[in-house]
Amino acid sequence: MADHENYQVAIDILRCHLGMSAEEARKELGLDGNNKKLTETQEVLIGLTGNN
Fold first, then answer.
1. Residue 47's pLDDT band (cuts 50, 70, 90)
2. Domain limits at 35?
3. Domain count, the chain
């Protein structure tokens, strides 16, 4: 499982700007340990970095 401290800024952004709970934000970022496929947010971020 990923180190959650490294993702705290992303979690905070999702919570503040999209009104998600901390748990929802972790799930959206794929940090809940159960997600094997990419979430919509991850797909968008991959598109922004050009690593398709």
1. confident
2. 4-49
3. 1
